[in-house]
Predict the structure.
Amino acid sequence: MKRHSTDVVLVPASGTNGIVLTMDESGLTQQPKKPKLNEERDAVGRNIKCLHNLPEEILRYILSLLPTKDAIRTSVLCKRWEYLWTSIPNLNFSGLEPDKRKQFMNFVERVLLLRDSSDIKTFTLSCDVLRDASHVSAWISAAVRRNVQQLCIYLYNFRKPFSLPHSLFTCMTLTELELAMPCILKLPPTICFTNLKTLNFSYVTFTKEHSTEKLFSGLPVLEELELQNCNWVNLKVVSISAPKLLSIRIVEDWENQNDENGCQVMISGVSLNYFRYCGEFCNEYHVHNSPSLVEASVLASWYNERKRQIAHRMYMLLTGFSGVKELTLVFCAVE
C-alpha cells in the first residue's frame, strides 16, 4: 500500500521559530518554518520598491498631500527622494508659537531658498508679523513670482506699518485670495486681478476711497466675494461692481468697527444670484442692477440704542430684493 507523506507542525516555545516535520517513506525530515515577521518585511520591501519606481510626477503628487514639514522629511529616505520636495505645488506655513519663532522663520527661509523654479499652486501663510514685515512681504513675493494660484494669508500682531507687495495686486495667475489681517490695507496705484474668481477679506480696514474703489472695480471675472468684519474708515461711498459676481457674503460686528457713521456700500452684479448678510448694520448696503438674484438672507442683530438706524439700513437693503425668488429674514429683522 502506498504511504502518503504527513506534515506535523510543532508549536514553538515563546521566542522561537516553528518547525515542520514531514513524514514520508524515508522517515521524518525537518523543515524550518518561514517566520511571519520575515514575510511582513518582504511585503514592506516590495511596497517600498514599487513606490520607489513610480514616476516623479506621481511621487510629487503624493508629497503634495502631506503637510509641508512631513513632505520635507522624506528627503532622508534615499538619494532619489532628497530633492523631490523642492518642487511640491502646495506650501503651508504656520508659526504662531512665540517660543518657536526663530525656528519658524529659518524654516520658511530655507524652504523658499532651496525650492526650484516650478510653479506654486497653493501657498498658505499664518503667522505673527511683529518686526519681520520685510521677511513676510518677501515670502509672499516669492509665491507670486512662482505663479501662485491660491493664496491664503493670515497675519497678526503688527509692530510697525505693513504693506503687501505690489506685485500681488497684478498677479495674473491668482484665482483665489483669502486675506485676514487686522490692520489698514495699503493699496498700490495699479490693481488688476485678471483671473481672480474668489476673494475673501477678514478684519481688513479700508481708508482710501479712490484706491478702494479701484480694487473693487478691477475684478473682471470674480464669482465669489466674502467680507468678514471689514472696516470702511473715512469712506462715504464704496462701489462693488463685478460683472460675473455670483455670490456675496457679508459679516459685521459692531465691536470691530472704527467708524460710527459707517459707509454706503453699493453692490452691483448683473449675474448675482446669492446674497447673505449677518451682523448689526454697521454700514449701509444697497443692492441694485441684479436681475438674476435667486436667494437672499438677512440675519440682523437688534439693539435698542440703534434700532432706528438699523431699521432704516435694513429697509434700504431690502428695497434691492424686489425680484428675489427666496428671501429669508430672522425674527428680529421682521419685527
Observations:
- The mean pLDDT is 82.
- Helices lie at 36-52, 56-64, 68-73, 101-114, 133-145, 209-215, 307-318, 331-334.
- The longest helix spans residues 36-52.
